[in-house]
Design a protein that fits this description.
There is one protein chain. By secondary structure, the protein is of the alpha+beta class. Helices cover about 50% and strands about 20% of the residues. The chain starts with a helix and ends with a strand.
């Protein structure tokens, strides 16, 4: 199947998932976010099994990107640094921080196609995926937080917690 047709088939499946997410959010409320997050953690752990371990966050992000690509997930992201930052990676109060831009996100596109708002249970599934994958790859806990959710891109802060 050619790439354009593959993308449309994926988007059709994601629209279906968007409908399920919308219905679940209406039926059980905020609990839908937790359920989707845990599903994402499990998916991230499963798909990153066997990936080489590293404590280098840039290597871990490259490995996560490769896991997504190898499984045909269109969550394209890149590290981003503002003009006043010296480095992409910085140490914050909670741990190591990297700002990420998601320009081509299958979840955002699916939510728009279905007509559902961002920042809901499907976005939480993505956060869970990153937490699960990075737990396998780095052996550390992490969180992904929305700084800005937009039509053309989302801007998120990844925090990898320090080892305790």
């Amino acid at each position: 199947m050619e790439t354009g047709n593959q993308r449309l088939a994926l988007q059709d499946a994601m629209v279906f998932l968007g409908a399920i997410a919308s219905g679940t959010e209406q039926a059980i409320g905020e609990s839908a976010n937790s359920i989707s997050y845990l599903a994402g953690v499990n998916l991230g752990k499963k798909l990153s099994e066997g990936v080489a371990h590293t404590r280098d966050i840039q290597e871990a992000l490259d490995a996560t990107r490769k896991v997504l690509e190898n499984n045909d997930y269109l969550w394209l992201f890149e590290p981003f640094k503002t003009h006043d930052q010296e480095n992409i990676v910085r140490e914050g109060d909670e741990g190591t921080e990297v700002m990420l831009v998601f320009r081509d996100c299958m979840i955002r596109q699916s939510l728009f196609r279905f007509g559902h708002t961002q920042k809901g249970s499907l976005c939480n599934m993505m956060y869970g995926f990153f937490a699960g994958a990075l737990q396998n790859i780095m052996g550390l806990q992490s969180s992904l937080e929305i700084v800005h959710a937009g039509e053309n891109a989302c801007y998120k802060k990844l925090i990898v917690r320090r080892a305790s």
